[in-house]
Write a structure and sequence with these properties.
By secondary structure, this protein is an all-alpha fold. Helix content is about 90%, strand content about 0%. The longest helix is centred in the first third of the chain and has 61 residues. The radius of gyration is 31 Å and the shape is rod-shaped. It starts with a helix and ends with a helix.
Amino acid sequence: MDPQVIAAVVASPTALIAAAAAYMAGRHQARGAHRGPVDAVRRQDQRDAYAAFLQAAETYAYGTRRTVTIAQARAEIANSGGTVDPAGIDARAVVLRAEAAERDDTLRATLPVVQLEGPEHVATLAQEVAGAAFQIRLAV
């Protein structure tokens, strides 16, 4: 057989394999170039949703904390000129916790965004936090 024919026969499958590999690498790179910005936006939306939910949970937890409401009740009673007795402070602290629990709807408003944006296990944990907040609201 002619050496030129042999060279052509040997080189043809190699060229086809190289062309197929280059084509697949190009498609993979194009897919990555398209998905990169989309994934970055999706991750930023997730971060924003998580940050809003965590901020709402922290605000709720702080507003319903016993030590905070007792200090606030003590200050309110002292500023109004009333007598500072432990029973009155406790009663006012209960009212302040109830008011804080009722007026803070931010936690309920941010939960659906976390459920939409987050993975299932994060959404489940966020639902548990919101459920616990609801139980605190009922207990206060």
